[in-house]
Amino acid sequence: MLRLVDNPPNPYLSQHREWLEPPPNAQVEVYEESAKSILSENDSPDIPFRWSINPYRGCQHACAYCYARPTHEYLNLGAGTDFDTKLIAKINAPELLRAVFAKRGWQWESISFSGVTDCYQPIEAAYQLTRRCLEVCLEFKNPASIITKGCLVLRDLDLLHDLHRATGRPRLSEHLFCR
């Protein structure tokens, strides 16, 4: 007879533990903030983009390997389950991005969405901050790239096609897929 294991063994450890009862429900809390800035500059030679935008803090995808988890500690929140369950929406992200692009010194450099947290995590369906920021990119004809695990990106294919056309980029990849 087959028995479902709620907590599969970790292949990297010589031992594992199973839950004695169902795992606790994770209660997601969403907070809104008016951010002071929206673009982060990167100067690492290992990362192929200079500017990134993250409309959200924390990430509901809950990837155990995520390098961004410690950023929640700057908010006096935990890097563990707080990162997965205490999510912050930067409700003024599109307005901040518009202000950056309107500045005289902006060079129309490509920006990368989700350099830290996934811009297409489930709360994006309600807030639409990523879509609204992409609309700003299109308005200013500013190139952008996206890193995501979320299939919600498919919602914005029309906008992404228009953005690629407007910025003179090669045709949008046909290799988009969701698992």
Describe what you observe in this structure.
With 179 residues, the protein is an alpha/beta fold. It has one domain (29-166). The protein is 23% helix and 13% strand. The chain is built from 5 helices and 7 strands, in the order ββββαβαβααβα. The strands form 2 sheets. It has a 4-stranded mixed beta sheet, with helices on one face. The radius of gyration is 19 Å and the shape is elongated. The chain starts with 28 loop residues before the first strand and ends in a 13-residue tail after the last helix.
Annotation field: number of helices: 5
Cα-based radius of gyration, to the nearest Å: 19 Å
Oligomeric category? single chain
What is the arithmetic mean of pLDDT?
Answer: 86
Helix-strand sequence = EEEEHEHEHHEH
Q: Give the helix level as a range of percent.
A: 10-25%
Main beta-sheet strand count, sense and barrel state: 4 strands, mixed
- End-to-end C-alpha gap: 30 Å
Give the beta-strand count.
7
Order of neighbouring strands in the sheet with most strands: 2-3-6-7
**Overall shape:** elongated
Domain module count: 1
Please indicate the percent range of residues in DSSP E strands (runs of 2 or more): 5-15%
Which structural class do you get from the secondary structure elements? alpha/beta
Low-confidence runs of at least 5 consecutive residues: none
Defining key terms:
13% strand; four-stranded mixed sheet; 5 helices; alpha/beta; three-stranded mixed sheet; elongated; 179 residues; single chain; 7 strands
